[in-house]
Amino acid sequence: MTNGYFEDVEVGDSQKAGPYSVSKEEIIQFAKQYDPRPFHIDEAAAARSVFGGLSASAAHTFAIFISLTNELQPPVRAIAGLGYDELRLPNAVRPGDELYLEAITLEKRESKSRPDSGVVRGQFRLRNQKGDTVLQCVGNGLVARRPDAKAST
Amino acid sequence: MTNGYFEDVEVGDSQKAGPYSVSKEEIIQFAKQYDPRPFHIDEAAAARSVFGGLSASAAHTFAIFISLTNELQPPVRAIAGLGYDELRLPNAVRPGDELYLEAITLEKRESKSRPDSGVVRGQFRLRNQKGDTVLQCVGNGLVARRPDAKAST
């Protein structure tokens, strides 16, 4: 049983979240505000494009990824994201998709600058209901250390 | 004078966009939907947190970055983003910030799989009104080739 502190995290641990259901309305609304390209906001234009239909903005897919990081089970006491590497979006997110996030811990180390937390590096993969990856990246985040561990150092 | 085709892009070129004005209401609304952590949605909780006040979700900052890529001047005929490397968010986005994007072309090469386009690699930096970087990354995108260049190959 884990309490989600840095001390509880082990390399190779996996966490899961989802599904997140993506509606056509949400794809269009998000893109109108942040990425108003025809293949994100106009069904007819999208059908004629190389995408062959509406697809979510990369910014929207990233927002859904961040949303699901808040729901990962078992939970980890993440304080802040430090950055993301090798972010790729190999397949488009489509209206009606159901998205699932998986996180696997790659590395952990104590923070040099923050004694109350540690740095955890993880591989994230967001997949649709067919198992196709729609977003993948390596993320680095700060995770809270157990209070008694901090007191003992 | 450039027409924004792959053939017109040169290593070292720079493009700019902005400002994008970030309101408190937009920060809270975005975070309520995609990243409902207290320091993104609750002013009192945010004031007590290590952030010392409301800050935008990383997903929101990324969405503003994508939004501004659509407005870069001079424009380039970008077809699709292929991915992002070394994405970092060194400073928080705050209510009232005015954000400016700068893109600098690092590399260009023809696409192996798509004769109608080329791959351009660029350094992106999103700064606030004080010049502090709030998001930086290296992005790879497909840019349309000039139609006559395609016909001549």
UniProtKB/TrEMBL annotation, chains A, B:
Superkingdom of this protein's organism: Bacteria
InterPro entries tied to this protein: HotDog_dom_sf, MaoC-like_dom, MCH/BMMD
Gene3D superfamilies, sorted: Hotdog Thioesterase (3.10.129.10)
Residue span(s) of domain MaoC-like: 12-113
Protein name as annotated: Acyl dehydratase
Taxonomic source organism: Bradyrhizobium zhanjiangense
